[in-house]
Each structure stands twice: as structure tokens, then as C-alpha cells.
């Protein structure tokens, strides 16, 4: 079995001085990348391509995530902000273009079509989610479910390529890992009170808050101190820790008995970072 080294290979496409100096990039899709590599590496026919397939999928995902970071407000007056916005657009295009280049040079034209269809489906899901947000029709639970679907869709494109023994467990394991990932990101967001309109806490308070609290949330420039007090009142961070704990326990149950045994051990190892986060002092206090 080859060792997992996708982030190191991807670094030569991601770590450009101009990008690092003038803008920031989204997180590398570490959990989804490691999962895809682990399953492909057990494939009797595709093991030799596991590194290439995982690399290009990760680059496409980063490209889409980079475009998602571009502000929808086109009225950018500061030069630094304008340059950052432009570089996000160009960087997202560049990362996506590497997917076509690498696969075409490897003669994997069928995979280009498969991932292209996956990209279209991701964009469809994003548009639906955007409309639901715009119309304030989301519940907190639906928000998490929608986010998981958006993040897993590209990687689910590989479902038909995996060996038959993995047909049932691949989507389930991928979604559970990604749900844990989304909840962990929401915890970090709740602890910093940043981008509250794009958070689980926003939809939770909108669902259960008072009329005055809901009105406050609808203001684009809401008072951060008041928001923090609302977050504390509704125990947003605490509830997210509880959701993460429950999701991780469900994941552990699903991983028991997975065959081959070395795959089960590898998947359990990938999930250990969730355990370490849940066993930290802050998590212990919250749960």
C-alpha cells in the first residue's frame, strides 16, 4: 500500500507566492481526500491510480471552495481587498484547470466527464442552498444536512467506480466523516462569532429565538456583543459539541467490522482527530 501524501503533492499547485501574499485559501479537504485514497487504494484495478484520482478531486474541490470565498459584493474599493478578490477567482480557475490537465495527460478522459458531472451537481446543490438561505427557509438540522451533501457530492462521483463490496459503505462512511468535519468547523466558527449568518448558530436561533432576537439576526451589521450573548443563551457551542460527539459515536459503530480489516483500521485512524478534539478541556466542559 502506498503512503498517503496527497497534500504534499498538491502543495506545488497551491503554494504560489502571489496567492499566499495577497489572499487566503480554503482548508484542504483532508478527511474526504484521505477517505477516497483509502478506498481507491484497496481497489484491485484502480490502486495504481489512487494517488492521481485523489489529487485531481482534491484540487477541483479546493477550486470550488476558493470561488465560494469570493465576495458577492462587487463594490470593493480597497486595493488590497480588490486584489484578494481577483486572485481568488483566478486561483479557483487555476486549481480546477489542473484537474483537466492531469487527467488528460494520463489518458483518463472518462474520469474528466465523471467529475465534470459531479461539479454540475455540486453547483445545483449550492444554488438550492443559496435560495433556501435567501428565503430564510432553513432549519439548523437541514443546514447541516445540506452542507454535508454539498461537500460530499464530488467525492460521491466515485461510487460507481469502487469495488462492489464497498458500494454500501462508501456513501455512508463519507457522509458521517463529512458531518463530523462540518460540525467541527461550526464549533470553531461559534467560538469566534465570525460569519454568523453562514453558521448553524444563526439557523438555530432563527428557529428558536424570540422575535427581537430574530430581528437582530436579520441585520447585516448586527452588534457582535449582542450576538455573543445570544449564542451563550442558546448554548450554541455546547450543542454543537454534543452533535459532534453523537456523530463520532455513530461513525465508530459503523467502522466496527469493516472488511478488509486493514481498511477498518485505516479509517479509524483518520477519525482519531475527532476523538482528540472531543477529549480536549473545552469539549469536556461543553459536553
Automatic annotation (TrEMBL):
GO BP annotations listed: menaquinone biosynthetic process
Alphabetized Pfam families for the sequence: HEPPP_synt_1
InterPro entries: HEPPP_synth_su1
UniProt protein name: Heptaprenyl diphosphate synthase
Origin species: Paenibacillus naphthalenovorans
